[in-house]
Amino acid sequence: MSRILPADGVEFEFTVPVVVIGGGAAGMIAALAAHEQGAGVLVLERDALPQGSTALSAGLIPAPGTRWQRAAGIEDSPELFAADILGKAKGEPDPADAARVARAVGPALEWLADRYGLPVSLVDNFTYPGHGARRMHGLPSRSGSELIDRLRGAVEAAGIDVLCEAHVTALYADAASRVHGVEFARPDGSSERVGCSALVLACNGYGGNRELVGRHVPELADALYFGHPGNQGDALLWGEALGAASRHLSGHQGHGSVAHPAGILVTWATITEGGVQVNTEGRRFSNEEQGYSEQAAIVLRQPDGIAWTVFDDRIAAIARQFEDFRQAEAMGAVLTADDPAGLARLMKIDPDALAATLTEVERLKREGAADGFGRDFAGAPPLAAPYRAVRVTGALFHTQGGLVVDDDARVLDRQGRPLPNLHAAGGAACGVSGSKASGYLSGNGLLTAVALGRIAGQAAASAVREENDR
After folding, report:
1. CA neighbours within 13 Å on the CB side: how many for 203?
2. Count of CB atoms within 10 A of residue 126's CB?
3. What is the CB-side half-sphere exposure of residue 77 using CA atoms within 13 A?
4. 433, containing H or E segment
5. Which 8-state DSSP code applies to residue 207?
6. In this protein, which residues make up the domain named FAD-dependent oxidoreductase 2 FAD-binding (predicted)?
7. Are strands 387-399 and 402-403 parallel, antiparallel or unpaired?
8. How does pLDDT run across 77-105, given as a tens digit for each residue?
9. pLDDT at 280
């Protein structure tokens, strides 16, 4: 239960300068940044092991103007990236917010590589929808689990305290909305109180809270939730109770290609490299290239909420750089056949319908034409035997709306003034995707985790120094 309790007369068992709630990418990066600035830090994580939504993602971070891009001969800049963010979201996000994270993420990624040894590399063999340059970066396995493991290792090596199985249930604040400390519950039912000079909310959004999802994202109220169950909206509820402004609460990231029933993410490279989706009738039903986020609700509108992602061996070779795809193959979720008819039999759908669909797709590719849904097939490579297919459904990954923050990731009140000592990063802060799933540009989730995480940690440490100097 998320509560705000009066701080007057409360005694804390101990006090640390900076408390970070949440041990995902945003929280770990905030902790590293604050520690580097000389502040004492405590990370409170509700799970037995810090993972968060990061571990469930592909671990890919979009960043412009990096040394990895330059090595690959790719020209990019924060201005171009910010323009892509705003273009995908139809201008809904605040341009200052887009510019802030676009400027900050590249230096943050190089900092993580240089100072903490993260083996970052560029995804240079395909372009994600909506990105004007190849700017997606990741670790060797292209998995979020590797990313969070590396960050956790960096935090441990730095000697930063991380307290797991510590579920924060309340904040202690005064009448001026200054947070003086937090209360957290332990597995044995006991509770402890820790004081702080600055607090960073890095406990993501509310994707795991069915009530809030039903209120703000009703079209996905009954969808598979593919995020972390601990994302209960605590940061949003605490912030709003303290008078914070929130924005774009209906914004979210969905995904239209989660293997079903295996529950494994199937990379959208299966689509961008020339694959398509069909429903259980063997027919296409949308412009798949609009983006995987908005495709979630579209897939769920199909019979039984099911679709098939159809591609070929060439595309499968590209997809294998992602650990999730390799797991899907190992589990037998990826079907293979030498011709469309054989594939349709494995899929248990009408062979004639699938054959007709794929014949039409190949005609559009040959002619470089667009279909009735608006997908332009010009330049798309043809599909060739052996063919592949994965049974998928649509899912909610995480919410994108949240608390409004400034250039120092300080949470703002409804009049645009910063709350005294409260910062937010990652899914706890309002993202840059606007109010719709279609506004989500690939990587926007980890973009704000990395960029705002570092900003929040640095700013929290600075605030502590300033308080000590007074």
Report:
1. 31
2. 16
3. 3
4. none
5. T
6. 18-435
7. unpaired
8. 999 999 999 999 999 999 999 999 999 99
9. 98
Nearest in space to 291 (alpha carbons), one of 249, 257, 247, 334: 257
Question: 278 - beta bridge partners?
Answer: 308
253: β partners: 398
- Spatial neighbors of 432 by CB under 8 A, at least 6 apart, are 85, 89, 93, 97, 98, 101, 441, 444, 447, 448
* Residue 265 pLDDT > 70: yes
Answer for the pair 332, 380: CB distance below 8 angstroms, yes or no.
no
- Report the pLDDT value the prediction gives residue 58, as an integer from 0 to 100: 86
Task: Using alpha carbons, select from 328, 348, 346, 352 the residue that is nearest to residue 387.
Answer: 346
Residue whose structure tokens are 């993420």: 105
CB burial string 66-83: b at 16+ within 10 A, e below: bebbeeeebebbbebbbb
Give the residue from 51, 36, 94 showing the smallest Cα distance to 455: 36
Tens digit of pLDDT for each residue in 139-182?
999 999 999 999 999 999 999 999 999 999 999 999 999 999 99
Q: To which residue do tokens 């020209």 refer?
A: 75
- Burial status of residue 227 (CB atoms within 10 A of its CB: 0-12, 13-18, 19 or more): buried
Average pLDDT over residues 434-444: 95
CA nearest neighbour of 167 among 22, 59, 267: 22
Beta strands in 95-190 (DSSP E): 121-122, 136-138, 161-163, 167-173, 179-185
